[in-house]
Amino acid sequence: MIRIGQGVDAHRLVPDRDLILGGVHVDFSQGLAAHSDGDVLLHAISDALLGAAGAGDIGRHFPDTDAAYAGIDSRILLRQVAGCLSERRWRVINVDATVIAQRPRLQPYLDAMTANIAADLEVGAERVNVKATTMEWMGFTGRGEGIAATAVALLEGL
């Protein structure tokens, strides 16, 4: 059996925070406001994986009302999602994700993001695709107010 899941996340850009995407510190003057580290890419991927497994979403597993997740590294959360998949007897076939940001330019960071995600999911990097796009100055991402990410994941039952 195979199942597909999709995930979306977005956060506001704010001063005095590190910008972390795909577990990579991105050189930028602002970061993402969130209870955790605000990594919209890993949040969207986590939601896609959980959705494909029929296991809810990251808000259910890691609520922002729980102080244990305050400032947490989203790679830790992604590894916990991978553990949830394993317990439910699912294997990742592939993940495809897009970060939506007018700036900063993300191309130099994509390989490192891909490597982090593949390592956390314990799959080969060829099973993970990360890309970036802009919104051509339209909407909240185009105006530089925030960053969003979308992801799809394909799982195979074991």
Automatic annotation (TrEMBL):
Pathway(s): Isoprenoid biosynthesis; isopentenyl diphosphate biosynthesis via DXP pathway; isopentenyl diphosphate from 1-deoxy-D-xylulose 5-phosphate: step 4/6
The residues the record assigns to binding a divalent metal cation are D9, H11, H43
- CDD domains this protein is in? MECDP_synthase
Keyword Lyase assigned to the entry: answer is yes
Q: Where is this site: Transition state stabilizer?
A: H35, T134
2-C-methyl-D-erythritol 2,4-cyclodiphosphate synthase domain location is: 2-155
User: Required co-factor?
Assistant: a divalent metal cation
Task: State which residue ranges cross the membrane.
Answer: none
Keywords noted in UniProt = Isoprene biosynthesis, Lyase, Metal-binding
Enzyme Commission designation: 4.6.1.12
Molecular function as annotated in GO: 2-C-methyl-D-erythritol 2,4-cyclodiphosphate synthase activity
Q: Does the keyword Lyase apply?
A: yes
Q: What class of enzyme is it?
A: lyase
SUPFAM superfamilies linked: IpsF-like (SSF69765)
Where does this protein hold 4-CDP-2-C-methyl-D-erythritol 2-phosphate?
A: 9-11, 35-36, 57-59, 62-66, 133-136, 140, 143
Which HAMAP family does this chain map to? IspF (MF_00107)
Please give the function described in this protein's UniProt entry: Involved in the biosynthesis of isopentenyl diphosphate (IPP) and dimethylallyl diphosphate (DMAPP), two major building blocks of isoprenoid compounds. Catalyzes the conversion of 4-diphosphocytidyl-2-C-methyl-D-erythritol 2-phosphate (CDP-ME2P) to 2-C-methyl-D-erythritol 2,4-cyclodiphosphate (ME-CPP) with a corresponding release of cytidine 5-monophosphate (CMP).
Q: How does it assemble?
A: Homotrimer.
Name of the protein in question:
2-C-methyl-D-erythritol 2,4-cyclodiphosphate synthase
Its encoding gene is what? ispF
